[in-house]
Amino acid sequence: MWTRRDIVQGGLLVLASGLGGACNCLAAAARMRKNYGCILQADEAGQYMNDTTDTRTFFTGNEPMIPRSGNKDFDQALARTLSRLSELFEILPGFAYYDDYDGLNAYATPKVRLSNADGTVLFGQGLLQRLMAGTESPEVAVAAVCAHEFAHILQFKTGLDRVVGAGQLTVKRMELQADFLAGYFAGVRKLERPGFPAAVFAMTQYSFGDNMINDPGHHGTAEERGQAISAGFEVAYRQKRKLPEAIQISTNYVQSL
């Protein structure tokens, strides 16, 4: 059984170990999805996670799942962030990188690779490189995306995905609630570490906004995403609300949109 202490000591809570080299991923076919947003349903996740008992995990049959970024110091720092996210949101998902050759992205899925986990978060290597090339606290930008995906795991675990997604033609409410909760995490971190650059969370999600308001995969405009982060931050940093209160406030917030 995993513990949060294991996450920190192990560097990352990973789904695979002892992996071989990467394949020529550009030759692989694009993965097919019927759902939208950064959520993978369990029946879709099979393209990313093999169900066999092998110690390796594959996406399309010839690509290894990637347990670490290649930067030991970054991995250890990220592990501490993931541990705090896990503790705050009261979840324990698996985490690994994957080759996002068919589109920079990160995903959350309720599908479980290892026992006693609350789903899985997959972080694209291309997305990681893009964020780490940023000039202002790039590691915090990575944390912002992780917080968003961990918030999706919280939605799965508590049934919030069904509550806020009911009757919706887009994933906007689910995505903005994940942003709100990511902002809540940023507010908590700001209380714990006054120098924490929480504004990077808002800037990161703002940069991922879109204007495709009628598209099923619409996550929210740049302004809506930034505002959701800021609203969650205020609930933690100014109001100092506990997680159950933040969840209810976030639900009311997105249902009012």
How would you describe what is shown here?
The chain is mainly alpha-helical and 257 residues long. It has helices at 4-10, 72-89, 125-132, 138-158, 160-165, 172-192, 199-207, 222-237, 243-255; strands at residues 94-98, 106-109, 120-124. The radius of gyration is 17 Å and the shape is globular. α4 packs across α7 (199-207) and α7 (199-207) runs antiparallel to α8 (222-237). The longest helix has 21 residues, at 138-158.
Strand segment tally: 3
What oligomeric state best describes the polypeptide chains here?
single chain
Our count of domains comes out at 1
Shape call: globular
Structural class: mainly alpha
Give the end-to-end Cα distance, rounded to a whole number of Å. Answer: 40 Å
Strand content: 5-15%
SS summary, helix count: 9
Sheet having the most strands: 3 strands, mixed
Q: Helix amount, in percent? A: 40-55%
Low-confidence stretches: 1-12, 14-29, 48-63
Mean pLDDT reading: 80
Gyration radius (Cα, Å) is 17 Å
Topology:
Elements: H1 4-10, H2 72-89, E1 94-98, E2 106-109, E3 120-124, H3 125-132, H4 138-158, H5 160-165, H6 172-192, H7 199-207, H8 222-237, H9 243-255
Parallel strand pairs: 1-3
Antiparallel strand pairs: 2-3
Helix pairs in contact: 1-2, 2-4, 4-6, 4-7, 6-7, 6-8, 6-9, 7-8, 8-9
